[in-house]
Amino acid sequence: MTTERLSDSNKGNSGDSISVGTHSTSLSSQPRPLTLELLVSVDLAKTGDVEMEPRISGLDFMPDGRLVVVDNANKKCFLLNERLQKLGSPHKFINKPMGVVCLSQNELAITCGKDVCFLSVSTDNIIRMRRTIHTSSKFSSICCESPSKMIVSTYDDSRPARMLSVDGVESDFDYVELPYETYKVGESACTYVQSKNT
C-alpha cells in the first residue's frame, strides 16, 4: 500500500479553489475503497492579486512538495507551499497557459496552445522562462512518459493525443488505437500511468 499526494481543482460559486489531501491506494487489480481527508484548502478568488476570477487549468507537485498552479484566466503560473500559501512572484505568459508537468527537480513544461514553454524554478521560488517549442498541434494537458518524452492531449486536431520530446520532436502513437476525433479546448485530457505503462 502506498500513500501519495492528491490534488483537486473544484469550481464553486466564489471562484476556483485548491485542496490537498492524502489517499491510500493499492496496485492490485481488485478495486479498493478510497478514503480522502481534506487537509487544507484556499479560495484563490479571495487572495486579491488577480485581475479576473481564476481558472485553474493545471496542477503538478514538484519533488520538494511545492505545488505548481496554472491560472488560465489570468495567464500566469505560481507556486504554493504545503499550506497552500503563495511563494514568490507569479510568472506571466503572453498566451493562456493550459497544462503543467514537472520534468525534474527544477524544470517545468507548460502548454500554451501551439507552444510548450520550459521554465526553471529556483529554490527561492523564482520562475524563469528558459525556452519555448513551437508545435504543429494545439496542446492542453501534458504529462511525462519518460524524462525525455511527454504525452499531450490536443484540441482542434483529429489526433486526440500525441507525444513530444523535450527537443521538440512530435510523434503519434503507433501501437495505441485512439479515436480520430477532434475535440474543442477543455473537452479532452490525457495522462500516462507509468506503473502500468499505459
Automatic annotation (TrEMBL):
It comes from the Eukaryota. Residues 1-29 are annotated as: Disordered. This is Uncharacterized protein. It comes from Dreissena polymorpha (Zebra mussel). Residues 9-29 have a biased composition (Polar residues).
